[in-house]
# Entry
Amino acid sequence: MKENLLKGRLFAFLDLALLLVIPLPMGSYEQDILIMVLFYAFASTAWNIICGFVGTLSLGHAVYLGIGGYISTLLLLNLQLSPWVGMFVGAAITSVIGILIGFPCFRLKGPYFTLASIALGNIVLIWVQNNEYLFGIDIKGAMGLLLPQTGNQAVAFEFAGKLPYYYIMLVFLLVVILVSRLISRSRLGYYLVAIRSDPDAAESLGIPLVRYKLIAMAISTFFISFAGTFYAQYYRYIGPDRVFGNDLSVQIALIALIGGQGTILGPLFGAILLVPLSSFLSEYFGGTLPGLHLFIYGVVMMLVVFYMPNGIHDYVMRFFRWAEGALWKRLPVSKAASGKAES
Amino acid sequence: MLQSVLLSIPQGIILGGAYGAIALGLSVIFGVTRVINFAHGSMLMVSTFAYYALYQLLGIDPYLGILIVTPVMFIVGYFTQKLLIKPLLIRERADVVEPTSVMLMTIGLWYTLDNLFTMLFGSDYRTMPTPASQSYLSMGNGAFVTQWSKVIAFLASFAIAGLLAFIINRTELGKGIRAVSQNRDAAALCGLDVYKTYSIAFGLGVAAVAVAGACLSQFYFVQPQTGAVFGTKSFMIVVLGGLGSIPGALLGGIIFGVVETVGAQFMTASSASMLSFILFILVLVFRPRGLLGRN
Amino acid sequence: MKRGNVFRITSAVLISALLAGSLSACVSSKPAEGTPGSAAPSPASVDSSQGVKVGFVWPLTGGSATIGQQHNDGALMAIEEINANGGIKSMGGKKIVPVTADSETKPDVGASQVERMITKEGVAAVVGCYNSSVSFTASETAQRYKTPFISQGGVKNEITERGYDWIFRVNNKATYDVEEMLKGIDLISKENNVEMKTYALIYESTDWGSDNAKIWKKFADERGWKCVLDEPVTVGTSDMSSQISKIKAANPDVVNVSFYTPEMIVFSKTMTANRVNPRLGVWSVGGGSQDPAYFKAIDPKAYEYNFVQEDWDVSGPLNHQWIKELDEKVRKEKGYQLNSFFAQGWTAAYVAYEAIEKAGSADKEAIRQALQNLDIQNSEDCRVILSGYPRIKFDKDGQNTYSTGTIIQYQNGVGVGLSPESNRAPGAKAIVPIPDDFDTRAKDGKK
# Structure
């Protein structure tokens, strides 16, 4: 029956509907912000798969985004390979790299792992800045790769308007959220949570810690590399300073942490809160108070750690559960609202 | 070629001493409280601004300024631990989960401080034309040249290390610190106020970095973004040297300094800076307790 | 109620308020009339009450923050003057309304800001962005929205080599910079009989530094000169003793350096302390060597005898009365002396004005055509070209082919124009080979 299908999921459907239509009446600057919301939500959800579920804090994850973007772009520039195909090639290579890096690093405990991820990020950044050739391919070092305009060709992942980019990113986001959900309900997810809660106990129960962490890492890096390809195709330029930089890594992590580490929708909530906020602040204060939006990020981070250690996720969910309950009491009249309800 | 390589070694040692001076405070903080303080670089930066303000407004030379700034920064560190970190530690005791929230808090603090100062003071690079920053030590008829401010930083690192070691090993207060860092619960059972000890250790660590800040402000710049680079380096140094080990932090700093400067003789300077990160990862993977660290 | 709960609720309320505020900021804007493919003018730029909006995108935070600020100062002061002198006369005295945004030295942020300016603010043209990487994405956005983009500061050749007809670059390409430097070296070496054979490159490992070095190598090799050192340096380096000792050991005739202010300060101080004296000097273009903060932070000894390819004519205040007055005004109001970055911001703003004036409307296509046909000759009372270029005229790629600079050498703390010879004051002469007078140089030099 319809009621049973909707029960507990009313807002999930409403918000999906909202996400589908929201860009249509907007101007293209607002569409750009919306695309960025989805972009960061996507990247942070992918980050969450390894870092949220497992509890390790990686502050160098942008590296995988950058590698994915570089690979698909190089394939496009040198072999005229469509970025749609290049995206998957990049993802595959990136996840292999993720596993190779994860293998020695997962032995490290908490803060050491974090420090190692920062160091790795810096190594890649400096290396790419200083080298123009990798295995003989011209990667242009610090100067970055410029994508040529091929006109409005879907095959070349290039569109004149913003809407196609929006819907592509939306599909990406839905896929990664779905994968996230599948993992959390699967045995893999069960083990990951066990590892997070008490690694020693998990190990003593015979759970192969490293193997499952590596699987999560492979999935996480596979998806985040799509974000890299998207970035390159959207801005038509990809350079090491931004994609391998520390700022991007921390931004992705902060959005997931503020949203709700280890939850499925947390990163999406975090992105919805922080991305428009930061655009809003740059718009009004960027000229007069430089750095204000990053300052706010820091303050919000501290507030969240103090008062909402699980991120804003719990509060948002509680609100929607209450709202849905209140609505079902009267007749269900759909009102558009942001956020999703999941159980 | 050989001559320049050999000459680069003392350059590296002096630079490394300066790095060590900055990292010492972090070593104390981590050794005692097991807190990874991502805002360490920010504290360094804040202290350099304090010295700059004293110099510009009152004409006080930064080395004299140490007398004023250090106690103030001690208080800042003490209350940072007490107000921001202690509540999280108490909350975390109840969980079995790894205490990441303190780390996250310090990340938030790092972003907040760095950008607060950017908003207030802008991104300009400020310098202080003090005697120490303008004069050079020249030996061997110009073969070896370095700034006096760097040499002072090198000497200061030993002074700071000595002072910290004295406090920790020879005083009553230090006994408490040692007890808490060896076994928190046993110390509590003996009647020690563990959290107060943490706050003192934190205060000492931040005071130590404030002294280093006086030296840094003279051979580098006063600018809101300078903290981050040194903060990251301090972590790596502390891990290399061995967490909680004061001589380890000095040794780690010197090793980093030498690797960077000697490495730059054999490859481009940029690639040489990669070496420190690579060294760090190797240490993490093969000898996580560092060179002189205890458990 | 427990204290913890009060805080919880307060934080929740605050965060929801912020969320609501930012969402409503998104939603309350008007949708743009046309799709990006058409050239429909956004309503605001033909709004008669406000004037014609022109957007400026500079790095106001990040590595080039002070430089971006100086560009902005120049642009805003120019607009002030334009408005005070009657605004856009062909539009009945309408004023120009500047809209400034911070690119944060990030290509994606710069592109977003340009997008916002065009679609929300309704600017008739965009000026920016200093950093080449930001200029790529920003100009691409402008091209897509068929909005004139006046590129100022970015030197990568590709900015005007992509076949985009809405982009016009006032300043020089990277290749021009390098060509001028090499021509200058040739000239000075021949005039003074000091042979030029070897060179060293030291630069920051960013796109600007690496690009400059690459082009240098290409042209220098064509002249048969030999590269004895190629040294990229990571931004944030506090110690350059190794690099300087390598330069000393390589003993080049010329050292070419590309650093922004902080690294430039460290470099100059270390070179002086180590008494390194390439025969034909230290040559640099832009970056820190044009930033007043650099000169303030070091002793004149440290930059004495250095050659700088200035993107503006340093003898300007000496030769032109109005520039002298402007220099005094800038010193008074901003606390630094008129420099290349200020001059470039000023010139770019004026070019935008000239185009709008010529077009007689805020219609973007008309402005573009005006830019294409623009031809401004420098003269005694030409207030447009503060940067000292002889002329501004864009070729078919949108590049101003007359964007030459001047090579100066610091003698006694003052920059003396030397190349091209047309920019040389009578009696001015290069001091080469660089004397070994570290103890006495610039003793009476003023800053």
Remarks:
- The mean pLDDT of chain A is 84.
- Chain A touches chain B at residues 55, 57, 104-105, 107-112, 114-116, 118-120, 122-123, 126-127, 129-130, 196-198, 246, 250, 254, 257, 289-292, 294-295, 297-302, 305-306, 309 (CB under 8 Å).
- The longest strand of chain A covers residues 133-134.
- Chain A has one domain: 27-329.
